[in-house]
Design brief:
The complex is a heterodimer of chains A (about 375) and B (about 450). With about 375 residues, chain A is α+β, with helices and mostly antiparallel strands. Chain A folds into 3 domains: about 5-100, Ubiquitin-like (UB roll), CATH 3.10.20.740; about 110-135 and about 145-220, Alpha-Beta Plaits (2-Layer Sandwich); about 230-310, no CATH class. Helices cover about 15% and strands about 20% of the residues of chain A. In chain A, the strands form 4 sheets. Chain A has a 5-stranded mixed beta sheet, sandwiched between helices. In chain A, strands 13-12-11-14 form a 4-stranded antiparallel beta sheet. In chain A, a hairpin with a 3-residue loop joins strand 6 (about 150) and strand 7. Chain A is globular, with a radius of gyration of 23 Å. By secondary structure, chain B is α/β, with parallel strands linked by helices. Chain B folds into 3 domains: about 20-230, 3-Layer(aba) Sandwich (Rossmann fold), CATH 3.40.50.11540; about 235-335, Ubiquitin-like (UB roll) (Roll), CATH 3.10.20; about 340-435, NADH-ubiquinone oxidoreductase 51kDa subunit, iron-sulphur binding domain (de novo design (two linked rop proteins)). In chain B, a hairpin with a 2-residue loop joins strand 6 and strand 7. In chain B, helix 2 crosses helix 9 (about 210-220), helix 3 (about 40-50) crosses helix 6 and helix 16 runs antiparallel to helix 17. The chains are: A alpha+beta (about 375), B alpha/beta (about 450).
Chain lengths: ~375, ~450
């Protein structure tokens, strides 16, 4: 193969060489850190994705070596390919940052902000984005748009109210399954992700829509409401799977496997397997193998120390000294009231991860 | 009386039928092009004519044609955009309804120039009866040997297909139109690649407005150089204007682009002035998407020169003191019209028509509509006006397709020129329910002799 042509591109005054045909966003990811624009809809493993959310807008201050004119508008960096000698401003451009602030505001005006009860909280791209680029309050004074909740079959829960219409799940179904069974209905601000009509999604690989969803619109029904992600501990594991790579991440608490997902890279996307293919996992691995005995555990996943998930990462953690006993001169503290005396929730004899579907009061009723 | 090229024969009895159209000199351009010229020569004539796209953006047509990628073994397509959905614009409807053969003639010549064997007319579904007219006309043309295989013995093959849309404004955007034509959801594509490289079914495609295509007929008949002599500057040829609103004679007018806006509104040949002795308050000169202009800025530019009805003059002063030619939907507002209500109506339209693909447009248009409704209902706050300004600023230019701009510009211009009216609405909610603000202090200061 002939030597691939390399283009020099300068992003926020850092020059990097990338092959021709690379997008600005991927060139910026090569530099890494803050220079990489945030992306809510672009997913490098999904062809044709991107260009929709507009969070990755950047300013091109110099088109190329041959044509140095700046581009008149901000461009979506995920869909614009670099030219030789291009100069791009991302975090050094006030215009781009202002536009991004606007986009975050637009994405949030109809978002329910129900993070306290959302399973995605802690690993939500929209949370991260609003934390970095959003305002502390909202200027929106109207009723937010709402939708009915739908179950897309036994495994996937659709919470359309939270959706930001990134189209990633549509591309996933297009590209991983042989027949897409869901899509966008209606248009404009009332468009919604839906199956036509009220069907369930049943393809072997459809569970991956949960992994690509940047918000809590598509969540795992076998994990729903069972735990917060930062209380669980991610562990790399693999198993011999006839349908997929079998390389997954187990989200554990103690010995219980609460959730199985594909492994994610630093951009929150599904990691490649050693043979260079995206490591999508199948529904069997994701939803049905919830015992540690199903898996060969490789070790704890490295989690970015800034991530809220690393709060549950116990490596090197020092147990603080118990202060009660010395203070009380050797006596044990007296338990004033055991919560289980008044509540049936969280009975110690119930294994949360083994319950089918979300836990309800019925799960904890004495007859169960 | 300005020169007419397209509508010259529009009032001839029976011109809708083939026989009369042919007797009146129809299809001469096809004969000329196919017998005497080659495709490159046709493109060259159109380039020389300086014809600018009549759909709204005003991009030079000849240049657009020359961008068409020529790929060996891959057919190219010409698609005629007849999805005329811009509020206030109805010129294409008039052309297609009364002169269907003129469009077909233009399509044959243009298809010959672009070597498109399958040419499509994408027409909005609401024009249901026009679809029948076009299909009858295509049948007639086919029966007389103007369509099909080996037209006039030249070996050139051309078929025209009419595709009806399903009622979405967004499908007038060229890439959304192509998606819809392919049978998909009408969402605009992300450019590049442009349709000239990858258009319908990934083949090189040119999308032209109905009026642009029909203008090719006189260009070929009279020659590009002759055509370029009509008009002024880069606004060559004639333009159809669909005038509506508070005027005595609403309708479709053809004019060469040398007359002044004042003449257009007040002369009896065109709009015939404002009815009931009212005064001119404002005007949207190019279809609902372009900025609204108050009377003083409409009739004279910021430099004090009289404003002409052409591309350059209407956009003189940028968006600060100018507007755009747009698609030629000329909407006139008299002193009784309320700008706030008018802006709210437009905002509602754009919210309803936003495709929902990219976030600024999907969320921003709805937000603007709600705020405008509040102001209109007397529940607004002064800070809402600044908020509106901020929202439109963050939509404009940040969306995939121009619908975001089209939704932002009317709001921006209304606030820019009529801010006092918005403030009056907020401060006098009760009064605003029963009467309008009337003329702004700067509107209609010019004494107009009728």
């Amino acid at each position: 193969m002939a030597e691939q042509q390399l283009f020099k591109v300068t992003i926020d005054n850092i020059t990097v060489e990338v092959p021709a045909g690379t997008t600005i966003l991927n060139a910026a990811r090569k530099i890494g850190g803050e220079v990489a624009p945030p992306a809510m809809c672009y997913y490098s493993k999904l062809k044709d994705s991107g260009g929709k959310c507009r969070t990755c807008l950047v300013e091109v201050s110099k088109g190329s070596e041959k044509d140095p004119r700046p581009m008149p508008k901000l461009v979506a960096s995920c869909r614009t390919t670099v030219m030789d000698g291009m100069e791009v401003k991302n975090i050094t451009s006030e215009k781009a940052l202002d536009a991004r602030k606007g986009v975050v505001e637009f994405l949030l005006i109809n978002h329910p902000l129900d993070c306290p009860i959302c399973d995605q909280a802690g690993e939500c791209d929209l949370q991260n984005l609003s934390y970095e680029h959003g305002n502390e309050g909202t200027r929106y004074e109207f009723q937010r748009r709402t939708f009915e909740k739908h179950s897309l079959g036994p495994y996937i829960q659709l919470h359309m109210t939270r959706c930001i219409l990134c189209f990633r799940c549509v591309y996933t179904a297009d590209q991983l399954t042989n027949k897409r069974e869901h899509g966008i209905l209606d248009r404009g601000d009332h468009s919604e992700i839906a199956t036509y009509i009220e069907k369930s999604l049943e393809n072997d690989f459809i569970g991956n829509v949960i992994d690509v969803c940047p918000v809590g619109a598509l969540t795992d029904r076998t994990f729903r409401f069972k735990n917060r992600v930062w209380f669980t501990k991610p562990v790399d594991a693999h198993r011999d799977c006839p349908t997929c790579s079998g390389r997954a991440q187990l989200w554990m608490r103690g010995d219980e496997v609460f959730r199985v997902t594909a492994r994610k890279d630093e951009w929150g996307e599904v990691m490649d397997t050693p043979d260079g293919k995206p490591g999508w996992i199948c529904n069997t691995c994701r939803f049905e193998k919830k015992n540690t005995s199903d898996w060969v555990i490789e070790g704890p996943t490295k989690v970015d120390r800034h991530s809220v998930i690393s709060q549950g990462h116990y490596i090197g953690m020092k147990v603080p000294n118990e202060t009660f006993q010395p203070l009380m001169k050797g006596r044990e503290p007296k338990l004033m009231m055991d919560i289980h005396d008044v509540s049936e929730v969280n009975k110690t004899n119930i294994d949360l991860s083994l319950i089918e579907g979300p836990a309800t009061s019925e799960t904890f009723s004495p007859d169960a | 009386m300005s020169k007419k090229l397209l509508l010259e024969k529009a009032h001839v009895e029976g011109i809708r039928g083939y026989d009369v159209y042919r007797r009146e000199g129809g299809y001469r351009s096809v004969e000329k092009a196919l017998k005497e010229m080659n495709p490159a020569a046709v493109v060259e004539e159109v380039k020389k004519s300086g014809l600018r796209g009549r759909g709204g953006a005003g991009f030079p047509c000849g240049m657009k044609w020359s961008f068409l990628a020529k790929v060996e073994g891959v057919p190219a397509h010409l698609v005629c955009n007849a999805d005329e959905s811009e509020p206030g614009t109805f010129k294409d409807r008039y052309l297609m309804e009364f002169l269907p053969h003129l469009l077909i003639e233009g399509l044959i010549v243009s298809s010959f120039a672009l070597n498109s064997h399958d040419t499509y007319i994408y027409i909005r579904g609401e024009y249901a009866w026009i679809i029948d007219i076009l299909e009858t006309a295509i049948e007639e043309a086919k029966a007389n040997g103007w369509l099909g295989k080996n037209i006039l013995g030249s070996g050139f093959e051309c078929n025209i297909h009419v595709h009806r849309g399903a009622g979405a404004y967004i499908c007038g955007e060229e890439t959304a139109l192509l998606e819809s034509l392919e049978g998909k959801r009408g969402n605009p594509r992300i450019k590049p690649p442009f349709p000239a490289v990858k258009g319908a079914w990934d083949r090189p495609t040119v999308v032209n407005n109905v009026e642009t295509i029909t203008a090719v007929v006189p260009i070929i008949n009279m020659g590009g150089d002759e055509y370029a002599k009509i008009g002024v500057g880069k606004s060559t040829g004639t333009k159809l204007i669909s005038a509506c609103g508070n005027i005595n004679k609403p309708g479709v007018y053809e004019m060469d682009m040398t007359i002044t806006v004042e003449e257009f509104i007040y002369s009896d040949e065109y709009c015939g002035g404002i009815p009931n002795g009212k005064k001119l308050k404002a005007c949207i000169p190019g279809g609902s998407s372009v900025p609204i202009l108050p009377a003083n800025l409409l009739l004279k530019t910021a430099k004090g020169e009289p404003r002409l009805m052409n591309y350059e003059s209407l956009s003189d002063g940028g968006f600060i003191s100018g507007s755009m030619m747009g698609s030629g939907g000329f909407i006139v507002l008299d002193e009784d019209q309320c700008v706030v209500r008018h802006t709210y109506t437009l905002a509602r339209f754009y919210r309803h028509e936003s495709c929902g693909q990219c976030s600024p447009c999907r969320e921003g248009t709805g937000w603007m509509e709600k705020i405008l409704k509040n102001i209109e209902d007397g529940k607004g706050k002064i800070s809402d006006i600044d908020l509106l300004w901020d929202i439109q600023r963050r939509i404009e230019g940040n969306t995939i397709c121009p619908l975001g701009d089209a939704a932002a510009w009317p709001v921006a211009a209304a606030i820019r020129h009529f801010r006092d009216e918005f403030e009056w609405h907020v401060l006098n909610p009760e009064e605003a329910k029963v009467r309008n603000y009337g003329l702004a202090h700067y509107a209609d200061p010019i004494h107009v002799a009728v």
